[in-house]
Design a protein that fits this description.
Aminoglycoside 3'-phosphotransferase, Chain: A, domain 2; two-stranded antiparallel ribbon; 42% helix; globular
């Protein structure tokens, strides 16, 4: 289980005394995730999710919590942070910053249908529009500088050809000018396990702790690279088409975005290749860390490079 900080029933019972959520009925660790410690919490008042933050600091967290509250107020199905009796979203539990949020309905899917991809595309467009009125900026912590630093640290674990590909792609994207592309709040990690589906309807978007201010098209590429990909790392044309069309119907793409699309797909693949290499080869201590296979995104990146005319509208 991906739990770095253990929480007992006695711990959470004492912590819940600062909230108006009723008494504890059940505490259950959540095995998914590699960044934070998460528990399902059931009380007399409902079902919630407790998160203890293992990397983010108390100074960084208000952006994420305020963003989720903002999106929830604007009709986006995302976890709504619960304020304590002092009207604060953020507390501390077992020495770690912590919050408790509403638990959403639905479950993640591993093999999404065309209709489900379309629903996610439309919801991502709605989230981008709702985020335009959020006034707190957050520079992407996994931007140009992070890519260069992390790639340098993991390169020694790679065969020569892969290390060269990594270095070339990092340099290529560092030199790109994306200043003309529409920007706003992005989720930056909207993989299948971060979307709860109820049939063909999106029940919830979760895990906003990579959210930041960046190019909106980058968020589209990150999401498509997971939702619309075949096992061999090639795009599934039917799913990709419907995903993009549904998004475009909500927030129309610009001509600049159309031009930037092939390179943005590569950048999105590069970012997760690097992070998965880092998590695999340079993990931090924990009871168990579910590190994902970096080879998946190496294949996706290589396929994007080979196909410079990817699926578009």
């Amino acid at each position: 289980m991906a739990v770095f900080t253990s929480v007992s029933e006695a711990d959470i019972t004492h912590w819940l005394a600062h909230y108006s959520l009723g008494t504890l009925q059940e505490l259950q660790g959540i095995p998914a995730g590699i960044e934070n410690t998460n528990y399902f919490v059931t009380t007399g008042n409902g079902r919630f999710v407790l998160t203890l933050f293992e990397k983010l600091t108390p100074d960084e967290l208000p952006f994420y919590l305020n963003l989720m509250a903002h999106l929830a107020r604007h009709g986006i199905p995302c976890p709504a942070p619960v304020a304590d009796r002092d009207n604060r979203f953020l507390g501390e539990l077992n020495g770690k910053p912590a919050c408790i949020v509403s638990r959403l309905s639905g479950k993640s899917v591993t093999q999404p249908s065309v209709a489900q991809c379309a629903a996610v595309g439309a919801m991502l467009g709605q989230m981008h529009i709702a985020g335009q009125s959020f006034g707190e900026p957050m520079e992407n912590p996994r931007g140009v500088a992070w890519r260069a630093s992390a790639a340098q640290q993991v390169a020694r674990f790679l065969p020569q050809d892969a290390a060269q590909l990594l270095a070339d792609e990092v340099a290529l994207h560092a030199a790109r000018d994306v200043s003309e592309l529409p920007r706003g709040v992005i989720h930056a990690d909207l993989f299948r396990d971060n979307v709860l589906m109820e049939g063909d309807r999106v029940g919830g978007l979760i895990d906003f702790y990579f959210a930041c201010s960046d190019v909106l098209l980058y968020d589209v590429a990150i999401t498509l690279n997971d939702w619309c990909m075949q096992a061999d790392g090639h795009l599934d044309v039917a799913r990709a088409n419907e995903f993009l069309r549904a998004y475009h119907a909500v927030r129309p793409f610009t001509d600049d975005e159309a031009t930037a699309w092939p390179m943005t797909l590569r950048l999105a693949a590069l970012r997760f290749w690097i992070s998965r290499l880092y998590d695999l080869h340079l993990p931090r201590d924990g009871e168990m860390v579910n590190a994902h296979d970096p080879a998946v995104f190496e294949r996706i990146l290589r396929n994007h490079i080979a196909n410079d005319q990817p699926v578009w509208l």
